[in-house]
Write a structure and sequence with these properties.
Length: 237
Amino acid sequence: MLPGGYLAVMQATSRDEFRDEVVRFARDLGFDLVSAMTVIDHGLTHSEFFVVSNSPSAYVDSAEDQGLARRDPVMQHCKRQTVPIIWNQDTYVAHGAGDLWEHMARYGYHAGIALALHMPEGRHFQLGVDRDQALPSDPLELQRIVADLQLFAVHAQEAALRLFLPGALKMERPALTPRELEALRWTMEGKTAWEVGAILGISERTAVMHVNNAMHKLGCVNKHQAVLKALRLGLIH
């Protein structure tokens, strides 16, 4: 069973509903500011950007300035990495962009956490939460926040691609074998590959193969994303 907040963002049916769920999640996590950006690359020609945020209106132009983005160490990290980045003023100073932090801080951007998901076929999703106070000093509390953000991002990107991906580019419903679907169903229940193999009467290695095949057909990079996409497409229930 998916937690209510994660399920709610997956069920968003419009840009406004999606934005409301993203903002609600960020505030529940202790952050007043949030931005979720979906990027679709069209070969080498151009990319489409779909952004929802609650940035202060006076900061919107700065947030969309590509020149500033190229100097922003957090944006550049997310462009190349999937590991979350925890940032504050020191992050910007260390990259020679202290003046950029000073500008952001005037609008409430003092510290935050950001991450990106890079998916097949030139699809990307970036999520960042920010606030005007320092992040928790307790490493365990900070680790929990990062984990919550990562899990929410996986769910949010499913909704974002469904809402923003041009119809002509949307994936057709893939044909998974009965064994692949069974392996995904038990994975959804939290079973390990060894447990899935025991339930289905197959080896652990074969169970892993079925899950990996399902991931490939669904265009996902991990089994959690595969389960979510299969749920959204109605392949499993």
